[in-house]
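Anyone opening a protein record will find just a pair of labelled lines. A complete record is shown below as an example.
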Amino acid sequence: MTTTPHAAPGPWNITDIPDQRGRTAVVTGGNSGIGLATVRALAGAGAHVVLAVRNPESGEAAAADVDGSVEVRRVDLADLASVRAFAAAWRGTLHTLVNNAGVMGTPESRTKDGFETQFGTNHLGHFALTNLLLPHITDRVVTVSSEAHRKPGTPRIRFDNLGLTGEYRPRAAYSQSKLANLLFTLELQRRLAAAHSPVRALAAHPGWAATNLQRRRGSALSRAAMRIVAQDSRAGALPTLYAATQDLPGASYAGPDGRGEIRGRPTLVGRSAAASDPVAARRLWAVSEELTGVTFPEPAPPAPPAPPAPPAGA
């Protein structure tokens, strides 16, 4: 069972990105794949873009080939101390946070804080980063999920065994982390709305994009199929850019409009019933706060009213 997709008004492309001058964006994993394509597009439209990357040397090499205003800052999403340091160093307004970085199909392992690597990096790292940066964010948070949130089988959050200890399978762990991304977006939007915040939380998926993340996994046959069927990184970034720059409802999920959402132009798409469950979203949030020690920030108090203008001639 899935929610009903909403149609987008006609094909959309990078040229439809509105002027981003005067805006600042952070893109995690902005040194390669759809992350780098997202950086290029936002910087090309005038934004100042921060590549938040684990390896600054790789980030600097990528940034050197981007036209526009960019900088590189280090963050390791598999290390909560690194996430806290990145957020603590932030100054000024942040208009858009794009939670793009991720790992996929890794052998069983743990983050520095002891979490299963895919869940810890893809979900918990971004959960902590978002909440720590939220006091600075003025427009939106876009989190990159995947159609893998639907499979294999009927994925759900294994609250009884988040690390899948004793039953670890790389694909199942990845699916759980991508389902978590969507539940995180759902609950974040609920909390933002309850706090009367203008910030919106949205999610996106790239379809089947030929990135390094995909090339490192699968059989020779599946890699050959990818070369024929998959989109390139520039096309794979379109749903993220659509979610990051268009006037869309909070909790929207963007993806390609083609058959099976493998490729195509961005539109709003459906998600699994498990990804639409508000009870599971709240439970995941509570567990994530407990695991990371990071909570949803109290909304900033409203600005005091401006003093009345002095009478004429005073």
The radius of gyration is 19 Å. The chain is about 35% helix and 15% strand. Strands lie at 24-28, 48-53, 69-74, 94-99, 137-144, 200-204, 253-256, 266-268. The first helix runs from residue 33 to 44.
